[in-house]
Design a protein that fits this description.
alpha+beta; Rossmann fold; Thrombin, subunit H; 2 domains; 6-stranded mixed sheet; 6-stranded antiparallel beta barrel; 6 helices; 14 strands; flat
């Protein structure tokens, strides 16, 4: 009897190996599909949380201190430019009349323009003659004006320098100006602040082998030097005057209504609260001989309710009494609350 196992075809012997191969392939495919499904299901469902950068402790403390600092209104000061002259040797022959000269008038105009442009002042120009004749009130001050500026151009000069070499050369023109000014309190007549401003302007030209620019006399250097000096002066004036509280006069008292000088053009708004002060007594120091004002005393608080007047010269505010009492007198004035 012939054994059938000895006569199996080669294809029959391969069947077990093919089954193993197919099984492995199915298991690999199943594992691949499971991996893909797992990756698809692993999507993050929560949105990412944005973490704000931490503020340094020093900056945080500064911000907290700034919030705690008291805030106060910025009211425009009324300031008059009464005199600005040329005291330098430059331009003496250019005087137009006995009262004004070109350099002094130019400096005065520049000062007025820069003060107005700052947005912190209402500027009134009064020459000394006009001031003496009709602008002084009974107590010796300009009506409605807080302070006056008196100044002059004290230094002005030009210089020309240059370098020359074979077939080349340069030429530099420079102008330098210095202005001095003092600020006078028109209530007391005391000059409480003085400052100086300096400015310089230059222009340069060069020439090589006959080619280039040749600079003639540049008259604009004068204007630019004076303008720079005035700008330097204005920066010092603004910082000093802002340190002084805004003040104004009491015009009339009618019951609970207090009429004061100054209104909306100076930055006042309805609802603003102001304090009424009584000037301290003036005493003379036995040691120095100077007259000194004792500290003022607060007598009342008022609130702005409306305005009157047609322009900055005659504008005023009607205030209602909030606390205390007000009696009209020369020693009474109104001041911003700081």
């Amino acid at each position: 009897m012939i054994n059938a196992r000895l006569f199996r075809s080669p294809s029959t012997n391969l069947l077990p190996n093919r089954s193993v191969f197919i099984g492995c392939a199915l298991r690999s495919l199943t594992l691949l599909l499971a991996t893909i499904c797992s990756a698809g299901c692993a999507t993050v469902s929560e949105r990412p949380v944005l973490v704000e950068p931490t503020v340094p402790k020093a900056e945080s403390e500064k911000a907290q201190v700034a919030q705690q600092l008291p805030t106060f209104k910025r009211y425009k000061r009324k300031i008059a430019i009464t005199r600005f002259t040329n005291e330098s040797n430059y331009g003496r022959a250019l005087m137009t009349d006995q009262d004004y000269d070109q350099v002094g008038k130019q400096a005065s105009d520049m000062l007025a323009a820069k003060l107005v442009k700052s947005g912190k002042f209402m500027v009134f120009e009064r020459d000394q003659k006009f001031l003496n004749e009709q602008q002084l009130s009974g107590d010796g001050s300009l009506i409605g004006v807080d302070v006056a500026v008196v100044g002059s151009v004290t230094e002005f000069g030009r210089s020309i320098t240059g370098k020359s070499a074979w077939l080349s050369g340069t030429k530099v023109q420079a102008a330098r100006a210095k202005v001095d000014a003092r600020v006078v309190d028109l209530k007391t007549g005391q000059a409480f602040f003085s400052a100086s401003g300096t400015g310089e302007a230059t222009t340069e030209s060069g020439e090589v082998a006959g080619f280039g620019s040749r600079a003639d006399y540049d008259a604009t250097l004068n204007d630019r030097a004076i303008s720079a000096a005035i700008s330097d002066l204005v920066d010092k004036l603004v910082s000093t005057l802002e340190e002084r509280p805004w003040k104004t006069d009491v015009l009339e008292v009618q019951g609970n209504n207090v009429f004061i000088s100054g209104g909306g053009r100076q930055g006042l708004k309805t609802g603003d609260v102001l304090q009424v002060l009584e000037r301290g007594q003036m005493v003379k120091s036995a040691q120095t001989g100077f007259v000194i004002n004792l500290p003022p005393k607060k007598v009342a608080q008022v609130r702005v309710v409306s305005f009157f007047g047609e322009n900055e010269n005659d504008e005023g505010s009607i205030c209602e009494l909030v606390s205390g009492s007000v009696s009209l007198g020369k020693n009474i004035y109104v001041e911003e609350v700081r």
